[in-house]
Model the fold of this input.
Amino acid sequence: MRAQSLWIKTGLAVLCLLALSACTPKYAVLISTNQVSMDDASIHSEWWYDLVLQYRMLRESGFKDKRIYVLYGDGNDFATAHAEFDSTALFGHSITDMPVNKANVQSVFTTVNQKMRKPGYLYVWWMGHGGGSGPGQCDLSMSISNTGEFVTDDELKSYIDTVSRYKKRSVSIMTCHSGGLLDEFGNAGEKTVVLASSTCAENSYDAPSTCNGIVQAEFNYTQPNALRRQDVCGAPVASDTVADGFISLFEVQQYNAGAMSNSTPQIGDPATLAAGLFPAKPKP
Done:
């Protein structure tokens, strides 16, 4: 009887280990660097709409609410009249964790580092204005519009590097001159994929059109649509080029390149991870 009990306990322990090994902890930091005060205003309202679409995509990709950290505005969700961007209607709760300011941008990665107790996947998204300087305009400075602060590309890299326990990570960035972030993550063996909305020299723009007529930034419209395999209206999009039911970041870049018309999306992939990095998989 004792031997049988020991066998059962051993078997359960093995099953627990197998279950734990089947999934990789997935964490996300979403940073929208302005505060929206009205619906349907170009170069304004998309700071909320784009954020909600990112959150929705992550939820659908298996990210848990408690592992998605949102920095936006003064720390409160925007009360939109559009049901498809109403956080409480969509998720049953508000999504903003803290106000967006430079100190919180830095501290949120310290928090994630403390929470990520075993190596996982880190997804980072940044939405805002950006300016380029230096050779090729590749020195990127990103503004936090509602505080007047700035974060340089080197500073953002150092903040993200605070999270030391990771297997893979990705950064999606929508700013003018956002291609300037690629070289910060360009070292050989860097286990990071960067998707940027434009080259170093280019501006980034609103989408020329959306399926529902609601204003969104172009990259922030195509990128989550690719990962969701559908647009915000529910129509399928042709992002799954290998037809396996999952979208890699390489497929996202391919879709962005074909779907965007106002700027040229960029990819940085020094460790050649993009084709095998699938945010929606249990093991990205």
In short: The helical segments are 2-21, 46-60, 87-91, 102-115, 153-160, 218-228, 249-259. Confidence is low (pLDDT under 50) at residues 1-20. DSSP finds seven helices and nine strands in the chain.
